[in-house]
Amino acid sequence: MPQRWSASGATNASRLDSWSKILAATHLSFEVTATASTPPMFSGGVRSRPIDYLRLVDCAAAPFAGRRDPETIGAHGPCAGEDVIGFQFVGKGVEVVREGTRELTLTQGSVMLWDGHQPTQIEIVESFHKRTLLFPRDRVLGVCPRLAELQSLPALGELGPARLLVRYMNALALEQSRLDGEAAAAAADAALELLRAVVEPGLPSARAAERAALRTDIRRHVRAHMREPELGPAAIARAFSMSLRALHALFEDAEVSVAVLIRNERLARCAEDLRRVNGGSVTDIAFRWGFCDAAHFSRVFKRHYGATPSEVRQAAFSASALQV
Fold this sequence. Notes:
Arc Repressor Mutant, subunit A, alpha+beta, 9 strands, 11 helices
């Protein structure tokens, strides 16, 4: 039978504390706080249905904010109930989620995957209802092992398989009470297989992952050596024991070529120093970050930023004078 919880208490503070305990029991541990949109008497409720090794959870609540930092994760035990990956569908309302390096604004019809091990901030902007399937992490990684290699879970967008899983999740909500042991196990396995169909197409192949990792190493190398005027594609190819042709091919499917990468990194460091009052002259800054010709630097800088280095420098001096 489904289990039900509702926020309770005589004051809003006690209701939010109750809600924090409910989320820890049904989803994940969160530090819950009020926002400017939280009503004087907060309301929230959860219904949870077991389906073999899965849990199907409905959650509805008024606006609030929640935060999971490394100390919060596992606060109610060694991640026992939090070793999960959630597939979430928003039925109504607005929720802003900040997880790892990504920020998502979820509205009616949105779907997402979330990770029980990730520090997370959420804000319910408008009263919402969401439905979530909670999958054990080891089961998900068993069918999608490459998922463990990613730093953040992939966005789902309008993927057809994701919509199919939403429909299946809604069907489970209707039929759960009629599923016996074997049927529940088969239904859970079917949901897991649908999740694999959702996730797998968006995961990088082993070759793509290797190429991305190598490009990341090259970006680190560029940042460490950009002061050296001789840094360029040929020098990088030598440093990584590859041919110049292979280096250029490595960046064919990247946002910018390796030469543009070097130039942009140098320009970014120059822009930072130009905005510092004690950064030195324009020529000093250009030479400091690997440019050998001040006139060429000025042309490239203006083309990239829409202003000359001297104009950026003068704006920094003017802003500093106003603060004195």
